Amino acid sequence: MKNKRIGSVLMCLVFWSVGYSQEVGCEAAKSGFLRFDGACISKIASNNCVNLDITDSYDFEGKEFVFVWDMGDGTTLEGLNIDHCYEKPGPYVATLSLEDPITKATIKEEASIDIIIKGSFELIMEPLEDVRTNIAESASFLLDYPDSAYQIKYTYWDFGDGTFSCEETPDHIYERTGVYYRSLLIGLESDIDRVTLCANDSVRVKLADPTAGMLTDKLDLLTMDSRYIEDKSIYFLLKKSSAGYSEVEGMDDLIGGINYRIVAFRGNRIYDSGDITMPSDSDQKSIQQTISDKTKQLADQEPLRLDPLFFELDQNELSRKMKKSLDDHIELLENLPMMKVELGVYTTSGGSFNRGVALSIKRAELIKQYMVDEGVEKERIVVTNPNTSRSLINSCLTGSDCDYVDESLNRRADFKLKMRR
Amino acid sequence: MRYLRAYLVGTFLTLFLVTHGQRIPNEIENIDYLVTFGGNAPASWGDDDHIQIFFFLIPNEFTEPIYLRVFDPDVGGTIDEIKGEWNSAHRISIFGGEGAHSHPDARKVDPVGEFKSGNLLASKVFRDNPEFDGKWYTFGPFNPVEGEEDPEIPNGRIFKVIMEGLQGDDGNLYQYFLSADPDVNEEVEGSNAFTYEYSFRLPVASGEISHIYPFIDKNVVSITQHNFDFDYDGELVIYSVSKNRHKVKKSADLKWASSMHEITPEEQNTTIEIQIIKQGKPNNNMVFFLRNQYEEVIRFYSIPIGGPPRYKYQVNLKYYQKDED
User: Stretch A327-333: mean pLDDT, rounded?
Assistant: First the structure.
């Protein structure tokens, strides 16, 4: 078995792929794809074991022969009903012989049966992240298969936007934003068998940042608290209508006479351009230029932030200082109606876990209620489950003896910015 | 009905037998020698009647002279079985013409009545003759048309060969070869041989398996096997397309044993196989014959019609994963 990363495909496969992707081969793969009506199976477990049962052929009226199976891989087993697991995939021939324990007679090749051990297969499409319009992305997959016996005969990609490819690692460009459902069909063949694997995923395509990631690069370079490190920097170009803000889906959405807004955020940090009004006679090029200029201005500034709140030990009410900080958060959210906030509340690692969870819930309720009372829509505040998200920001573990500073950092409420859908 | 059966047999003969050599006993039977004891030998030595009758079937298409060659026809030397001193005389007689096979007495298990029916074509008595010991003796030439045309076995002519133990008590071990050449064994293409009662020397080594091949026609619904003087020397089983070594009753020293076995539809019009699985007793000779439900004797063919049977195993194959409970 071989775990093959197709992204670094061998030259021979490249040659094959090029040849195969031409004319008949790709057309055949495409028609096969369009006809494919089976369940999309991305994983086939190895049925590497067999049970051979000849009980129904036991017909000796009392004569006790010894049944000996040569399993074809060097293993011999005795019995009317035997089990065997093969180490390697491939075709085998199991052959039955009989031995008479009294006369020592051996009768060879009484029966034989073909056994095909396929091995295991697994196809995984490598997910595409932060896909942007008009930027080529390389589609690739991981394929685990018994490469000693099987060869890839065809690869067929359906990108979900009406385009297809028979290359193994095609580059593809989405022209419009949206969610696309990709499908991948791979056909493998051995001398005696054919296997078809299929995988699906969805790709969210966002509008390309006209500054090629100026804001997101800046956010990526920020020194973030550890709890935000995993958060991706995300860029949005929004257009404003009577229904609110919506994402610009493609360059042909850029027209004059409406307001646009640039938002780029990561964790608790956010760049926000505010509304950018485009004159009605603006053409696409001038709008792009305006957006680019505004982005550069933003990049010269520090992003806005939602700072965490820190609690004293066993504190279960909001202090004046906390409320002051929350007021700032509320004001910021009022200016960002397209955003919501994810609220995570944590306690120290010491003491009872359940008590810590209960305290977290209580503090989260206090914060959420305060924000709602001050005008933030309830559905814009999402509280993470403290049972499963009791994130600590240092090496303190439940029951460990941590110093006061570390534990103070853990007694906190975090805010993460998210785009409202 | 009898003619239909015969036609089927004839067809099989034509289809399947053209490529096999015609040594009797045949190599695929794993029997080295036929055996016939002198007329004074006790039956306990493995021969119940001191006579062995074989029939040779020559296809109509074969028109060249034929020869019956006999290996080690004398009764003496290293191959035969001595009892005291060499004192035996055996006669080999070849018959053709009307009645050679079709006469009812010719097809009986026991050599009684007119079993020497037909025209005597050749005969010779052998004793302890060193010049024939371990050598081939040739009878013939015979014109194939001298054989009998028996409608029961169409498309050929039948010759009958009788080996008689006239006197003495020694065992004569021998082979036949129906030959197209007087000096070397040259197969008569398409020929076969059969007998109604088989007397032969078993292999010595334990674990050796001998095979004899009766043909079961489409009207047979049961058979009764009879074996003599097996001495419990291993196992006797029936093997066929639908019998995976049915155990049959086996005989003790100087005894006959018999057992009845049903015939399945799959076995009709096929050759079945009697497997004799040897346990190792030296110099063991035995006699075997079969009857059908009408008490008719069933022919053992030297070359199995349609080839040796093959039991159809039902092998149930199931695949599963290693970690499956």
Answer: 95
**Signed CA dihedral, B11, B17, B23, B29: sign only:** negative
Residues of B in contact with A45 (CB under 8 A): 321
Which ipTM score applies to this complex? 0.70
Token digits for A416?
């993460």
> Tens digits of per-residue pLDDT, B19-76?
445 799 999 999 999 999 999 988 777 678 899 999 999 999 999 999 999 999 999 9
Write down the pLDDT at residue A133: 84
Which of these, B27, B19, B28, B11, lies nearest to B269 by C-alpha position? B11
Find, among B48, B104, B94, B44, the residue nearest to B69 by Cα.
Answer: B94
pLDDT digits (tens, 9 = 90+) for A293-316: 999 999 999 999 999 999 888 888
Q: What is the mean pLDDT of residues A90-99?
A: 91
- Give the residue on A whose Cα is nearest the Cα of B210: A105
- pLDDT above 60: residue A336: yes
Percent of chain B with pLDDT over 70: 92
Residues of A in contact with B314 (CB under 8 A): 54, 56-57
Q: Contacts of residue B208 in chain A, CB cutoff 8 Å?
A: 105
Q: Judge: A50–B317 Cβ closer than 8 Å, yes or no.
A: yes
Domains and CATH numbers, chain B: 31-201 (2.60.120), 204-312 (2.60.120)
- Please tell me if residue B247 touches chain A, with a CB cutoff of 8 Å: yes
Q: Rounded CA gap, A295 and B190, in Å?
A: 100
Nearest to B276 by CA among B215, B177, B221, B201: B201
Closest among B164, B118, B159 to B141, alpha carbons compared: B159
CA B29 to chain A, closest CA, distance in angstroms equals 14
CB proximity B11 to A under 8 Å: no
Q: Which residues of A401-418 are buried (b: 16+ CB within 10 A; e: fewer)?
A: ebeeebbebbbbbbbbbe
Task: Sort residue A37 into left (φ over 0), alpha (ψ -120 to 50) or beta.
Answer: alpha
Instruction: State chain B's mean pLDDT as an integer.
Output: 89
Determine, for residues A50 and B320 on separate chains, whether the beta-carbon distance falls below 8 Å.
yes
Q: Which of A103, A109, A112, A114 to mutate: most B Cβ within 10 Å?
A: A103
Confirm if A158 and A165 have CB atoms less than 8 A apart.
Answer: no
Q: Which domains does chain A have, with CATH numbers?
A: 2-45+120-206 (2.60.40.10), 49-117 (2.60.40.10), 207-304 (no CATH), 306-421 (3.30.1330.60)
B320 chain-A contacts, CB cut-off 8 A: 47, 49-51
Using an 8 Å CB-CB cutoff, list chain B residues near A84. none
Q: Which residue of A has its CA nearest to B317?
A: A52
pLDDT value at A325 more than 50 = yes
**What is the mean predicted confidence (pLDDT) over A184-199?**
88
Nearest to A107 among B209, B280, B322 (CB): B209
B323 touches chain A (CB under 8 A): no
8 Å CB contact of A51 and B318: yes
pLDDT at A127 over 60: yes
Contact A60 B237 (CB under 8 A): yes
Q: Is the dihedral of CA B297, B301, B307, B313 positive or negative?
A: positive
- Could you report the per-residue pLDDT of B152-178, keeping only the tens digit for each? 998 899 999 999 999 999 999 999 999
Strand partners, A84: A50
